[in-house]
Design the sequence.
């Protein structure tokens, strides 16, 4: 992997071997990713790579690949729980999955989603729940959705020492309010609100903002207007970084197929073939053979 032109230290693209490399090819820096490091990356123009994970094995693979931020997303609902929306995810679900992910990660920054209604009732409850995510589950930061409405809550969480990532644009926890998962902020009024919300979140102390499914031009403008890294999903190429749901980009989950998902593999097809092959072998008594027996 070559050194990034804007990062003469070579630490983002890296020159050290990771101890977790499976194939001996990983070549990114072992340096632990922190919220400060993400800010430095924005300033140096080094793109930030983020993915989701929900369990130990996936987190270990994602981390070993040099991904900078691992989000334990409330997309756990659609990907792992087989549900249609994120709204029913609970704090206990998120604490459980974050605990699993944390065990598999050495380098990436681990961010956990605060689920719907765990931070909206009042800021005391939000603080307690953010604290659980850090103390019980080992998250290094939490993410929550919304702008003006959550700004005071963000400030309180940040003030006690828990980094907060904002989330604007398409906010899936509000699906019942909006009724669709279509692109947000196409109209000027909503775009203006989004610009204001990004500033409010920055003033409230977020270390980063996820921008989901908004026009690329607007995302570019917002990215340039704030000092914190903006991580896009369906928000064009000008954001400071990108995030995808791992199961979508791996082709494990294929029922959800928005155009912003690039499929980097067809692992779902591979898995199904392997399961079928195994079933055939068992039925034909081809498995186990002598060397697989005692
Ligand atoms: O829950 C999630 O996976 C997310 C990403 C889509 C940003 O919030």
Sequence:
């Amino acid at each position: 992997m070559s050194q990034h032109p804007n990062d003469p230290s070579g630490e983002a693209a890296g020159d050290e071997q990771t101890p977790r490399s499976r194939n001996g090819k990983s070549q990114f820096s072992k340096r632990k990713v922190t919220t400060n490091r993400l800010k430095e990356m924005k300033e140096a123009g080094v793109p930030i790579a983020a993915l989701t994970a929900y369990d130990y094995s996936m987190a270990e693979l994602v981390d070993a690949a040099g991904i900078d931020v691992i989000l334990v997303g409330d997309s756990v609902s659609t990907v792992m729980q087989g549900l249609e929306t994120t709204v029913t995810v609970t704090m206990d679900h998120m604490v459980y999955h974050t605990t699993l992910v944390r065990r598999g990660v050495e380098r990436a920054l681990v961010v956990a989603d605060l689920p719907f209604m765990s931070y909206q009732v009042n800021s005391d409850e939000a603080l307690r729940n953010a604290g659980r995510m850090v103390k019980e589950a080992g998250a290094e930061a939490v993410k929550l959705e919304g702008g003006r409405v959550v700004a005071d809550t963000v400030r309180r969480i940040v003030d006690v020492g828990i980094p907060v990532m904002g989330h604007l644009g398409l906010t899936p926890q509000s699906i019942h309010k909006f009724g669709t998962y279509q692109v947000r902020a196409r109209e000027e009024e909503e775009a203006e609100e989004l610009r204001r919300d990004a500033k409010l979140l920055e003033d409230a102390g977020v270390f980063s903002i996820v921008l989901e499914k908004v026009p690329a031009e607007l995302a570019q403008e917002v990215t340039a207007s704030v000092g914190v890294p903006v991580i896009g999903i369906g928000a064009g190429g000008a954001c400071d970084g990108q995030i995808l749901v791992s199961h979508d980009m791996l082709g494990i989950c294929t029922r959800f197929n928005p155009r912003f998902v690039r499929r980097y593999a067809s692992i779902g097809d591979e898995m199904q073939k392997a399961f079928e092959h195994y079933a055939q072998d068992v039925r034909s008594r081809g498995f186990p053979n002598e060397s697989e027996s005692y």
